[in-house]
Amino acid sequence: MNDVIQPLILLRLSVAVLGQRDHAAWWHCQFLDAAGLESLNYNFPKAPLAAGFTATCLAAKRLHDERIGRTGVTHLFRLEPDLEMLVQRTATKEAGKLLREMPFDRELSLSELARLAGEEIDSPEGPVQVGLLEDASTHCGITALARHYHAGFRLGLRIYPYFASRRP
Fold first, then answer.
1. Do residues 99 and 53 make contact, with C-beta atoms less than 8 angstroms apart?
2. What Å distances lie between residue 144 and 2, 50, 64, 94, 127, CA to CA?
């Protein structure tokens, strides 16, 4: 499971940046831009990036839960509890470099998303089941998420990929 943590964090961070108010405006916050990070540095001087990442992920989680639901599903911002805890702990750890190395820029985030996706696809707007619950912690599952998010941001559509306990 540890080999999927870094790609999950990079995917989550790319989607979090791209979904902010000043980009695609999927959620109404912008903690992961220069002004937001400056404000967080004042309020959370020991870990402004971790605070911005956590706050943005909570906004994204709320939106995804509203569109997809919460029962029998998991998505990028609501992972299984053990995996969620590991992703959050790794991403916010002071010694961790991922948050400091990731560019909080639209084009660079879109490029990172394209790299994780591997190929472009077209996807319908709205919730899209991309696999079963057990696929969420696999490289194939992460790639499926990345492809659908990349399609959404590339095409200007709100796409919410998720995993469910059974096929539709």
1. yes
2. 19, 26, 16, 30, 13
**Could you tell me where the DSSP H helices lie in the chain?**
5-18, 34-43, 48-68, 81-92, 98-101, 106-117, 139-155
Q: What is the mean pLDDT of each run of 10 residues along the chain (168 residues)?
A: 86 94 90 86 88 93 96 95 91 65 79 94 96 94 97 96 88
Q: Which CA distances in Å does 27 have to 55, 130, 138?
A: 11, 22, 27
3-state secondary structure at position 136: coil
Residue 92 pLDDT: 78
